[in-house]
Design goal:
Blueprint lengths: L1 E8 L3 H12 L5 E8 L7 H5 L6 H4 L2 H8 L4 E4 L10 H7 L2 E4 L5 E2 L12 E3 H8 L16 E5 L3 H11 L12 H8 L5 E5 L11 H5 L7 E5 L1 H11 L2 H4 L1 H15 L7 E6 L2 E7 L6 E10 L2 E12 L2 E4 L3 E2 L8 E2 L2 E2 L5 E3 L2 E3 L2 H4 L7 H15 L23 H17 L10 H7 L6
Parallel strand pairs: 1-2, 1-4, 2-3, 4-19, 6-14, 7-8, 7-14, 8-10, 9-10
Antiparallel strand pairs: 5-15, 11-12, 12-13, 16-17, 18-19
Bound molecules: NADP nicotinamide-adenine-dinucleotide phosphate.
């Protein structure tokens, strides 16, 4: 029996699905010891700090992660940042295989005038803020105005728009961060518009997300029915042959024709508008958009432009990865060849393919990379790993440390009828997790 040591950097879905695929490929000839590293004291990546709090079902995948973490071949090293606490070359020396599952945490920039005005924030900051990521507590967006615009027609834009449009009591039984619940509770935002630059037929929303909009009972949802009728006419026969497209456009048509309840809160989906300039005196006040049209499935700007009122602008137009010392970055992701970075180093998840796909997409993606890893395993494993020379044990939050944080959050939540109350300060996370800050 050969025992291979694998370091997985990043404890999000792609990292866990990699561990699962490695475990599934153990046989009489080989097995794996898995060390998982994360820069946060807490694991679960985007499942903890990305998934919207009003989508608790999506979070149930943590049961799978917990099962993997309970296996005797798994160790967790939280509060360990690659490049700061340990260099990739240290891991390469110690482990037979290093898998990078570091995601893409930076929000893409709109690159238009006014982007630096107060009141303009990226979903890459807004989402982890409401989810209690300890690095984003100070984002503290002002929700004191009435009009919010969310740029982008993908599921992240949808999450941000929906969160802004909900009544705070709809969030009070979720695991949203306490600080965010308070800000949403005092929010005066009443008119939220999600704006796509292309047509309804090009939107990146998935239909389950669209189909939950009519179920919001405290918020009226609007789509211009003419935009949908025109989009359906443009796609023609593709309505029959492309199931996802049909499902999206049908969901949007239903919303466009739905009766409104007369709620004070409005959530609108608008299309064919490209943001040109963010205007305001000392803070965002309006956004100027070019009005676009679709010709032969191509989106082109007309001579027309419009200005929309805006007290808060969230850009949700995609992500790119942070540079990691020791690996090259290419178009916002880690340069790789079908998951291989170099001999013994692999990449999975958004860091590999860019920010696309739902959580489950990472399962098949990680499995494919693990097939490659197995095919390329060295004939002789390196032997026992002693990481203490490269990393001070005192600063590490182990799996037991995380379990203590988890238990504290769950019991604090239970006391107030919520699934969990997240600990959002670094010092408290480290102290609960039994680790030192340095
Ligand atoms: P996305 O699905 O790629 O959508 C990005 C949107 O931003 C697109 O509509 C894109 O328009 C637009 N965009 C890009 N650059 C722009 C610019 N300069 N100006 C205006 N608009 C611009 O990305 P995402 O919403 O960040 O989501 C990432 C992945 O996570 C997706 O696969 C998504 O499904 C997934 N996710 C899933 C869930 C869920 O399952 N509930 C929740 C959140 C996220 P173009 O198409 O014109 O480029």
């Amino acid at each position: 029996m050969k025992t291979y040591r694998v370091a997985i950097v990043g404890a999000g879905p792609a990292g866990y699905f990699t561990a699962q695929a490695l475990n599934n490929s153990c046989d009489n000839e080989r097995n794996f010891l898995i060390d998982m590293f994360d820069r946060l004291p807490t694991p679960w990546g985007l499942v903890r700090s990305g998934v919207a709090p009003d989508h608790p079902k999506i979070r149930t995948v943590t049961k799978v992660f917990e099962k993997i973490a309970a296996e005797p071949n798994y160790r967790y090293f939280g509060n360990v940042e690659l490049g700061r606490d340990v260099h990739i070359s240290d891991l390469e020396k110690l482990y037979d295989v290093v898998v990078l599952a570091t995601g893409t945490s930076l929000g893409k920039k709109l690159g238009i005038p006014g982007e630096n005005l107060p009141g303009v924030i990226s979903a890459a900051d807004f989402v982890p803020w409401y989810n209690g990521h300890p690095d984003y507590v100070d984002v503290n967006p002002s929700l004191t105005g009435k009009y919010a615009l969310v740029i982008g027609a993908g599921n992240v834009a949808m999450d941000c728009g929906r969160m802004l449009a909900l009544v705070s009591h709809e969030l009070s039984s979720t695991d949203i961060a306490d600080h965010a619940l308070e800000v949403f509770h005092n929010s005066s935002m009443r008119d939220v518009t999600i704006v796509g630059r292309r047509g309804p037929e090009h939107a990146a929303f998935t239909s389950p997300e669209l189909r939950e909009l009519p179920k919001l009972d405290q918020t009226d949802v609007f789509i211009d029915s003419q935009q949908i009728t025109e989009a359906i006419a443009r796609v023609g026969n593709r309505m029959e042959s492309e199931k996802d497209l049909r499902s999206n456009l049908e969901a949007m048509r239903e919303i466009a024709h739905a009766e409104h309840r007369g709620n004070e809160r409005r959530l609108s989906l608008a299309f064919l508008l490209t943001p040109l300039e963010i205007l305001g005196d000392g803070k965002v006040e309006q956004v100027r958009f070019s009005v676009n049209k679709v010709i032969d499935d191509k989106v082109i700007a007309t001579d027309e432009s419009i200005e929309l009122l805006c007290d808060l602008l969230i850009s949700a137009i995609g992500y790119e990865g942070l540079e990691i010392p020791g690996v090259s970055n290419e178009r916002g992701r880690i340069a790789n060849n079908d998951g291989k970075v170099r001999e013994g180093v692999y990449v999975v998840g958004w860091a590999k393919r860019g920010p696309s796909g739902v959580i489950g997409t990472n399962k098949s993606d990680s499995s494919e990379v693990v097939k490659k890893i197995i095919a390329e395993l060295p004939a002789t494993p390196k032997g026992a790993v002693d990481i203490s020379g490269s990393l001070s044990g005192e600063k590490v939050v182990t799996h037991d440390g995380w379990s203590a944080i988890n238990a504290a959050e769950l019991s604090a939540g239970e006391a107030v009828g919520r699934p969990r109350r997240k600990v959002v300060s670094w010092s408290e996370l480290l102290s609960l997790g039994g680790a030192k800050a340095t």
